[in-house]
Fold this protein.
Amino acid sequence: MSTAEETSGGEVQPWGEVTPDAARRLLVAAVEAFAERGYHATTTRDIAGRAGMSPAALYIHYKTKEELLHRISRIGHEKALDVLRTAAESEGGPAERLAEAVRSFVRWHAGQHTVARVVQYELDALGPEARAEIVALRRQNDAAVRGIIEDGVAAGDFDVPDVRGTTIAVLSLCIDVARWFNVNGPRTPDEVGALYADLVLRMVGAKSRPRP
Amino acid sequence: MSTAEETSGGEVQPWGEVTPDAARRLLVAAVEAFAERGYHATTTRDIAGRAGMSPAALYIHYKTKEELLHRISRIGHEKALDVLRTAAESEGGPAERLAEAVRSFVRWHAGQHTVARVVQYELDALGPEARAEIVALRRQNDAAVRGIIEDGVAAGDFDVPDVRGTTIAVLSLCIDVARWFNVNGPRTPDEVGALYADLVLRMVGAKSRPRP
DNA sequence: TCCGAAGCTGAGCGCCCGCTTAGAGCGCCC
DNA sequence: GGGCGCTCTAAGCGGGCGCTCAGCTTCGGA
């Protein structure tokens, strides 16, 4: 399960739950390499090199290259799901909750777009059981978003003829941010999040949107 | 597999412009394989095998495996751009043109999702100059959609605070259909196209939408 | 002081990759 | 009929891949 990632000093560090230190460095190197070139185009020599180690060192901490991808996918999905759920379960009406969910989910996919790319686009490189585990996590994303939209419809705040289809569209819109987002582009993750939250409220026909 | 688009007076099948026949069969096999496993995970032996030929036969028609990907990407993008432009330049107001553009673009990405996947997600496997060529084609997609939205804003039909951002979002939404669309799922390409056209009209705040 | 476990490296194994080459089959034009 | 060019195959080359293993270093505990 996803737990707090704090050192004794209290600082939050991205892959804090991965120990020992060498294993974490290898995993961070793998995320970089997979995001840049793709899983199949990345060699174990490249990963080890980025982590400042010999190729053989990788196999002390991970059984195979695929296990690295699996760990990255699981942790990444859990983080994204955590971000989404926190927003979905927050205080406020459906419109506020949906806006906050989209805002934070998009912010994560933009800010952590290297991880997000690996997590979203390398699923097929996993074996059947690892893939099944990840797919289950994805369905929880879907359920979280659908839940908010259903609440909004029930409350009469939203006008949505096709709840399942709209849910897919909203999630798809957010996830695809990981594909096109560019750190050197004109927008910050916060700005994209705000823009997308507004667009999604329009998609669900929210009766009263927060001021732009 | 859908191969034969019937000809009434000379209209061609999906990859009709690729000759000779053996080159076309190899290309179709490559599209299947790339879409299924990804470019880097696909071997030239696999492609040739699917086309019913020996591995060496591939190199009579294509200089390298990368050239195959390049040809697929170029033709695929040109087809998609053609679909989009035809709709963008059709008769009617901005709302009708935008709806038709989204409807047909989405229909293409759903119906031809194998090609679309290769075209959209394997761009990084291309060399610098081939990639530059494809990126140029993408910018034309962007310009086509932005043009319609600008028309709608100028005519007072749309309410769009951020035209560039909304353009990216609309295209992103359509393109990502290629990732999640499933032939065995509950929706046909036509249905997804209709749903998405409605959602996009909401996103741009179209004053009067066609009947749902 | 010594010992065993843990972490890591240099060397390298066996496999399969993209791609090449020599040559066979076959239709076409003179 | 015969040479030619196009298409295709069987065989295989060089190389880089994922991964392994023997052995070195480091270090905490008895």
Residues 20, 22, 53-57, 60-61 of chain B lie near DNA strand D (CB under 10 Å from a C1'). Chain B has two domains: 17-62, 65-203. Chain B touches chain A through 30 residues (CB under 8 Å).
